[in-house]
């Protein structure tokens, strides 16, 4: 069963528009069997996915923002980026006033209302609604401390701890009490 003619026409128009935006990336006919990517040995079911993925390894970023110096290998990333210049936030939470330019951010935000915590640690019973929080948590088990202080030997597993620590060196005190006298 094929796509309805209207959808197929729309899809072809989108592809042709992308080809006009960056014609040099569409001329590469070298595609391994099953569209496997040599560096990571992943397989893509569609040649367009393979081409997009391949651009990340080749460093090609043919999609450029006309308003700033942002460039990307993925046209949908450019579309999302352009919303920042326009202030567009088309994705709105049905439960509160939260709005965002990125659909993934809305999905993550909705978990604050539902309490859903799909990311679980395989070493303990920690659960979270954010993949980045799980990555940060796992460093507790591994002992990894990728963030280093430029002023001393201090290392930590999260950027907020590093920011707080660096204030000790520079004397920054960003939080002041409005009730205390100066």
TrEMBL record:
UniProt xrefs under InterPro entries: Znf_C2H2_sf, Znf_C2H2_type
PROSITE patterns per the UniProt record, alphabetical: ZINC_FINGER_C2H2_2
Region (Disordered): 25-61
Residues spanning the signal sequence: none
C2H2-type domain: residues covered: 63-90, 91-118, 119-146, 147-174
SUPFAM superfamilies linked to this entry: beta-beta-alpha zinc fingers
Extent of Basic residues compositional bias: 50-60
Alphabetically ordered keywords of this record: Metal-binding, Nucleus, Repeat, Zinc, Zinc-finger
PANTHER family from the UniProt entry: GASTRULA ZINC FINGER PROTEIN XLCGF7.1-LIKE (PTHR24393:SF163), ZINC FINGER PROTEIN (PTHR24393)
Protein name, UniProt field: C2H2-type domain-containing protein
